[in-house]
Model the fold of this input.
Amino acid sequence: MKKKAVAAAAASGGDVVREHWLVRDMFSFENVGFTRDVGNVKFLVCADCEAGPIGWHCLDDKDSFYVALERVAHE
Done:
């Protein structure tokens, strides 16, 4: 299943992001917004500049938010 998703992303010109931080509490975020539902996923965006997506949240799991390492500044 993963291989199909990677192939589909590459064929559509999308980015393949493999490394994420797992955040368990949405109140850990500062200035992160959520898109409308896309299937059962909401994408995370910067609330200041609306850049994104910087991560995603599956609506099936209320306590899991994934932030792409390469899409945010970190030390």
Q: What stands out?
A: Confidence is low (pLDDT under 50) at residues 1-10. The first strand starts at residue 20 and ends at 23. The two ends are 33 Å apart (CA to CA). Residues 2-11 form the longest helix (10 residues).
